[in-house]
Structure of TetR/AcrR family transcriptional regulator:
Amino acid sequence: MTESPAARPRNPRGQGDRLREELLSATERLLEQVGSEDALSLRAVAREAGVAAPSIYRHFADKTELVWATMQVSYERLVEDMAAAGALVPEGDPVARLRARLRAYCTYAVDHPAKYRLLYETRQSPVGPERLAQHPAGLLVRGLHDALAACEEAGWRVRGSREEAPYVLWSAVHGRVMLWQVLPAAKNPERLHRFVDEILELLLER
């Protein structure tokens, strides 16, 4: 018989945010193990965080909300890194700013492989269109949309469907990152940066 984990001390009044962060950290650790929202149980999350399962409902309406909130931490970190990289480039060169953002995306994937996998390898339960619109991946898509809009304002034309262009960039760079990670080749991040240059040349024109 295994020993049950020690009960977690109750947070003092006003420290609900601390419990929320602990639940997110516990969920992240478990998702890295089970890889699926369906395989994740709220009881396991509560046990990992050292709280009673009903405590979770004080912060999250259901398991999907908990999983999305956990993923949002990584999406926010990724988007912040991309925005910071773009901000280092002068505003007068929006293509160079977009290039810097996409290279930062690659760097994040290389530097944080476990958190990056969490974003793309966590199988999630289907939801309706209205709820799907609130998915944390929207942070990334909107950032790419705005960066492309800045390129258009500077006189560049986006080839193909403008609506799909952010997804073309996202899926192309993500696919290249995944190939880079799994293929038994020398791990030179510069190959990812060169791919970013290639995809921008294909997507943008004067």
